[in-house]
Amino acid sequence: MTAENELFLDFCRNGNQRSFEELFNRIKPWLSKMIFKIVGDTDVAYDLQQETWIKLITRCRDFD
Hints:
Structural class: mainly alpha
Mean pLDDT: 93
Number of helices: 3
Distance between the termini: 13 Å
């Protein structure tokens, strides 16, 4: 299991805010680049990144 997976699980299971902050800081640069490569538009990429984080937070208990 990766460190990112452990951070995600700690946030989802225990609500550990520090785990989420660490996960966010580790993933954000990669996620930003990947979304931008796919859509090619900075504004759209920003919106999609926000939607991704919101979905992660609101539905994290649905992930296995």
